[in-house]
């Protein structure tokens, strides 16, 4: 079993008995790029935040939790490389994972952001062993991690899980299409506002770790452009930015500063993931 302590509150609420936290003695591995073990991860109320998992029937959720482990995913941590065999699927709790398209000259741009609204591992679900994208941590936090074989077997065995994974896969496709239009037609301040709103929603808190350099990479723009855009949002009192952290101060104002794409994506998400 991964870990050593049982989340009793969560387990008793669901009738499960194996949701574990990592031992306080655990330390991150230095020999494997996918290991994301955190010492002393703790969830006081035992409640899951991932929206897909929260929609599962109790028996299916218990079966999935029994085969999962709670891990920490750190900002900029590489979870998998393009064309590399996928070993795990992740269901973020309060971390954010980016799927990044890498070009031959080394330039890269974010293709999809995954938070507590979804999961990483769509290729595994579709019986594909590798991905064309790079997977990396965007915002530090925790996730439930399953080995690829366990995830594939559960998706095949559990009808409720399979339905939600199909619907999330469709949501990812539609989000990517909307983002392509957004990147082409909307100014960088609007795109920054949309990205920050989505990040806040996916981590479930107002403050999260983020550097302008990393944001520029994710948006596929030059850093000076991001600096100007963030300055505009900060001067308007919508956000605060310091030492690699962002704090959303005025969400309604940030929503007004964003383009229509944020509203469109959220509306579609509410329809599909329900």
Q: Can you characterise this structure?
A:
The chain has helices at 8-14, 51-54, 58-66, 122-125, 148-157, 159-185, 188-203, 212-219, 223-235, 251-257, 260-272; strands at residues 5-6, 20-21, 69-73, 78-80, 88-92, 96-102, 108-114, 134-139, 141-147, 207-209, 239-242, 245-248. It is α+β, with helices and mostly antiparallel strands. It folds into 2 domains: 5-180, Sandwich (Jelly Rolls); 187-258, Arc Repressor Mutant, subunit A (Orthogonal Bundle), CATH 1.10.10.10. It has a 4-stranded antiparallel sheet. A 3-stranded antiparallel sheet has the order 3-9-5. Strand 11 and strand 12 (245-248) form a beta hairpin. Helix 6 (159-185) runs antiparallel to helix 11 (260-272) and helix 8 (212-219) crosses helix 9 (223-235). It is globular, with a radius of gyration of 18 Å. The relative contact order is 0.13.
Secondary-structure blueprint:
Blueprint: E1 5-6, H1 8-14, E2 20-21, H2 51-54, H3 58-66, E3 69-73, E4 78-80, E5 88-92, E6 96-102, E7 108-114, H4 122-125, E8 134-139, E9 141-147, H5 148-157, H6 159-185, H7 188-203, E10 207-209, H8 212-219, H9 223-235, E11 239-242, E12 245-248, H10 251-257, H11 260-272
Antiparallel strand pairs: 1-2, 3-9, 4-8, 5-9, 6-7, 6-8, 10-12, 11-12
Helix pairs in contact: 5-6, 6-11, 7-9, 7-10, 8-9
Structure in a nutshell:
This protein has 274 residues and is an alpha+beta fold.
């Amino acid at each position: 079993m991964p870990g050593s302590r049982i989340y009793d509150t969560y387990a008793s609420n669901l009738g499960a008995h194996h949701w574990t936290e990592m031992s306080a003695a655990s330390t991150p591995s230095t020999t494997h790029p996918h290991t994301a073990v955190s010492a002393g991860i703790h969830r006081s109320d035992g409640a899951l935040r991932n929206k897909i998992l929260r929609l599962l029937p109790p028996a299916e959720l218990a079966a999935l939790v029994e085969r999962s482990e709670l891990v920490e995913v750190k900002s900029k941590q590489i979870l998998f490389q393009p064309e590399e065999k996928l070993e795990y699927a992740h269901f973020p709790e309060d971390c954010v994972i980016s799927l990044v398209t890498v070009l031959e000259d080394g330039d890269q741009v974010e293709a999809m952001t995954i938070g507590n609204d979804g999961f990483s591992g769509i290729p595994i679900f579709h019986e594909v062993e590798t991905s064309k994208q790079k997977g990396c941590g965007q915002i530090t936090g925790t996730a439930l991690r399953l080995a690829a074989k366990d995830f594939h077997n559960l998706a095949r065995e559990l009808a409720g899980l399979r339905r939600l994974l199909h619907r999330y896969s469709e949501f990812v496709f539609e989000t990517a299409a909307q983002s392509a239009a957004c990147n082409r037609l909307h100014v960088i301040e609007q795109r920054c506002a949309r990205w920050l709103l989505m990040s806040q929603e996916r981590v479930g808190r107002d403050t999260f770790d983020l550097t302008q350099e990393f944001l520029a990479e994710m948006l596929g723009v030059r850093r000076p452009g991001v600096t100007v855009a963030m300055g505009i949002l900060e001067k308007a009192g919508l956000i605060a930015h310091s030492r690699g952290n962002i704090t959303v101060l005025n969400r309604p104002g940030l929503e007004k500063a964003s383009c229509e794409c944020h509203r469109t994506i959220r509306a579609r998400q509410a329809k599909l993931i329900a």
